[in-house]
Amino acid sequence: MIKKIGRHWKSAEAARTCPERRGLLKGLVGAAGVLAAPAALAALPALDVRQLALLNTHTGDRLEATYWEHGRYLPDALSEINYVLRDHRSGAVTDIEPGLLDLLHLLRSRLDARVPFHIISGYRSPETNAMLRRNGSGGVAKRSLHMQGKAVDVRVPGLELGHLRKVAMDARAGGVGYYPRSAFVHIDVGRVRYW
Questions:
Q1: Looking at domain 2-194, which CATH architecture does it have?
Q2: Domain ranges within the chain, ordered by starting residue
Q3: CA-CA distance, 75 to 55, in Å (whole number)?
Q4: Is 101 helix (H, G, I), strand (E, B) or coil?
Q5: Neighbouring-strand partners of residue 194
């Protein structure tokens, strides 16, 4: 269960399992990632406040969090996001690539989205990914970036899926996959490619 604490939504489990030191290291790694980010992401102002609103469609977990403020990633907010984007089948949690969060923030601002991104799939453990491949789930890559915390499948209620796809492609910040029959767009921070 996610609950609101201050300006952030917090899970009791995330608060227990993510010590401050781990969050600091994630912030430093994330800051280094921004230096190598595509131009669209590198252009985000360093002192900008970056926020996300997410709804995990499988768990019902909601989150509205400021994850970047005063030129740095906020470790508690990153931990909350990691928890909401966990593998809903196994419960496994991993560190989500901060560049992916920055891409979602950029898309949210370009779309002027007032509702949360609906998360269809965030992190997938290697076991979950292998199971989906065995069961013939279409489009599941053997080396999926979901397993690295670098991909997310999303939709935005009230927004045409094709428009979300176009805005994501225009960012040129990674891969964009279009799945209209399943009603989601895959977004990742791998190499730029479209399908």
A1: 2-Layer Sandwich (3.30)
A2: 2-194
A3: 20
A4: helix
A5: 176
